[in-house]
Structures are given as C-alpha cells and as structure tokens.
Amino acid sequence: MNKPELNIVISDSGWEKALPCIDDLCKQVFATTFTFMVKEEPSELFATKATLVVNLSLSNDEEVHRLNKEFRNMDKPTNVLSFANVDAPDFEEELANSTEVLELGDIIIALETLEREAQEQSISLQDHLSHLLVHGLLHLLGYDHQEDDEAEHMESLEVKILQQLNIKNPYEE
C-alpha cells in the first residue's frame, strides 16, 4: 500500500473558528488510525499497491440532515455519516485491479451536533472530533456495529486508537 491520503473539505467556516488547527488534527487522527490498523488488523486492503484515499467533509447540521434523510431515511442531523465503498458490490474487483488510487469513501461530520455532544459529555471538541473521525474511518475500512459482537470489536479498536492519541475511552461511564 502506498501512503494513504486524506482529502479534507471544510464546507462550514465555523470549523476553523472552533478548531483553528483542524487540518493538522484530522491528518494526525488519520495517520494514527491507519498506522494502528495496518499493524494490528492486517487485511487485503492494506496489501494493495494503490493509494487508499478518504474524503472528509467538515460540514454542518443542515447538510448532514439532508444527507441523512436522503440516504438513511432519517429526518434529522447526526454527528457523522460514512459512505463506505467497501460496501459496494464491485469493491472486491476494484481492490484486485486497482494499482493507482482506491477511494475508500466519504465521511461527513456536522459541526453543531459535534459541539452539542461535546458539551453534553463534558469532553473537548478536539477529542470528540477525533473519536468521530476514527469511527468513520473504521466504517470505511469495513467495520460495523449492527450486531453486538461487531459493535464490541469496533469499539475496542476505537478505544485502542484513541489511546494512541492520548484520548480517554469515550465508552466509559
């Protein structure tokens, strides 16, 4: 695998006001997540010669609400949406044949929901964003939390990655 790439689009100026070093933070979380996963959870995905690309949109409640309604039939905003290409029927073929670039998918995070949740949970915006980005990245890598055992495994990976970033376990009461 070539070095993975993170494309960041900041579509709401509030992000840069809330977290002035937003680009650096996202790149650090991205690099830490991939480094951890390559070492601890090896998969075919990491054996590809293609550059793995993730698109991150730092957006707002209005945009996430629209996407959540359109793609998940949920008429409300949410904190993070992930659109994973690993779920596409032709992804295995694309993985086998891709030599240059392989898009893993898109992550969209809503600023207002992130701010509200961070305040409710008494955690920093930086830590909460880091958690949501790790969560979204794991979805793009094929992890899910629909079943209890899947959820436990995904949460344990999140906790271990967040520990690498010196962020405490978000699932502890």
CATH class: Alpha Beta
Please count the beta strands (DSSP E, at least 2 residues each). 4
Shape: globular
Roughly what percent helix? 40-55%
> Which topology does CATH recognise?
Collagenase (Catalytic Domain)
Point out poorly predicted stretches: none
> In angstroms, what is the radius of gyration?
16 Å
Helix/strand layout:
Blueprint: E1 5-10, H1 14-18, H2 22-40, E2 51-59, H3 61-72, E3 80-84, H4 91-97, E4 101-110, H5 111-121, H6 125-140, H7 148-164
Parallel strand pairs: 1-2, 2-4
Antiparallel strand pairs: 3-4
Helix pairs in contact: 2-6, 5-6, 6-7
Task: Give me a quick take on this structure.
This protein has 173 residues and is of the alpha/beta class. The protein has helices at 14-18, 22-40, 61-72, 91-97, 111-121, 125-140, 148-164, and strands at residues 5-10, 51-59, 80-84, 101-110.
Give keywords.
Collagenase (Catalytic Domain), 173 residues, 50% helix, alpha/beta, 4-stranded mixed sheet, single chain
Would you write up a description of this structure?
- This protein is α/β, with parallel strands linked by helices and 173 residues long.
- The protein has one domain: 3-Layer(aba) Sandwich (Collagenase (Catalytic Domain)), CATH 3.40.390.
- 50% of the residues lie in helices and 17% in strands.
- The protein has a 4-stranded mixed sheet with strand order 1-2-4-3, sandwiched between helices.
